[in-house]
Amino acid sequence: MNAGPDTRMIQLVMALRRAGISDKHVLGAIERTPREQFVPQGFQDQAFENRPLPIDCGQTISQPYVVAAMTAALKVDDRCKVLEIGTGSGYQAAVLARLARRVYTVERYRTLGKEAEARFAELRLTNIVTRIGDGSLGWPEQAPFDRIIVTAAAQSRPDALLEQLKPGGVCVAPVKAGEVQTLMRYTAAEDGFLLEEALFDVRFVPLVPGAARSF
Ligand code: SAH
Hints:
The chain is of the alpha/beta class. It contains six helices and nine strands, in the order ααββαβαβαββαβββ. The chain has a single domain, classed as Vaccinia Virus protein VP39 (Rossmann fold), CATH 3.40.50.150. The radius of gyration is 16 Å and the shape is globular. Bound molecules: S-adenosyl-L-homocysteine.
């Protein structure tokens, strides 16, 4: 007999624990987010495996481990107003929505943004606000943010986004340094100092600046 979704979800959470994710809030948010609803038809049976999967428009839904580790690194709580760049499937935003006060998420492909929006409605995640546009410019009308998470790789430090961070705020972003991308964490100190930490190496699709796609 095949294992049901509940069993497979428990196995995924156990795999994340083994991989070093210990934050109970993050593991709880993963457990309450049905990843099978964020992957394309035909991939549902792989939704509980700890690996990235293809989505529309040549993009990817991140590996659960990376989603969990980035969420933990962001140090989100229920007072946080969070900005996500790169909605993709909407999975990372849905996980954040369980922990944060409100999540603003920007995607450059209309198709992906609209599909993600429909998933949020279906799951009644009413604290997510979506937008189609160039996320490399952030979301000036909604700035500043307590937390910013970038789920596409920037070529260099994302200064335009860091300007939209509140004092005391945290931003995690994959930044390309030569061949590899490093997940960076930027913490804006109250006195204006920016703490920069290199956390671990990651592999993301590129952050593509410029106008949003009409499809
Ligand atoms: N967070 C997603 C994974 C994102 S993949 C998830 O949980 O499924 C990266 C996404 O960033 C892709 O969908 C890509 O289209 C988007 N992207 C790349 N450059 C962008 C930009 N400048 N503005 C907004 N989105 C961008």
